Amino acid sequence: MRGLLILYAISTETAIVGLFLAGIAPGLLTAVLYALMLVLWAKFVPGVGPSERPAPTSLGDKARTLFGCREIILLVVMGTICLGIGMATEAAAFGGAAALLIVLMRPANRGRISGRGLVDVGATTSCVFLPVIGTGLFGRALTTPQVPQPLPEWLTGFDLSRWQLTSHPSLPIWCSASSWMPAP
What we know:
Keywords: Cell inner membrane, Cell membrane, Membrane, Transmembrane, Transmembrane helix, Transport. By secondary structure, the chain is an all-alpha fold. Among the domains are: about 1-45; about 65-105. Helices cover about 70% and strands about 0% of the residues. The protein has ten helices and no strands. It has helices at about 1-10, 15-20, 25-45, 60-65, 70-80, 90-105, 110-145, 150-155, 160-165, 170-180. Helix 5 packs antiparallel against helix 6. The radius of gyration is 26 Å and the shape is extended. The chain starts with a helix and ends with a helix.
């Protein structure tokens, strides 16, 4: 949904922040109405919800369960940003520290969780940096022989609107890409 809002903001020349702020109230209203619907459904339709109340648990059991959840990491990250302790980079560092503490509090699976975490971090890092490195190499390959310099001069020679200038140069690329992409 975020991507659609960004594309909409760019195409209509609207502030992206304004669109995101405008989406808060409908999103919260939808969440509240879904929760209310589920509560009413479980209350009035027999067999949908739990049949009996769960047994009471101690505070220690609740704390151990809390430290096994992802929500505590989200709480730490969002708390860091909302309380003004730090920006996104510092919040990510606090979230990483919280995840490390959670792993250290689970001695039974510590090695397996740490190994899987390192593999996931490596995969995510390579997925982020591969396009960045590829873009840099592609840019260097184009600018070294000075391929892109005549293109703007050639395109500005036509009397085209902004929409035509941005859509037409990319149309051959889309058509050629659709010819080698597999069908869904």
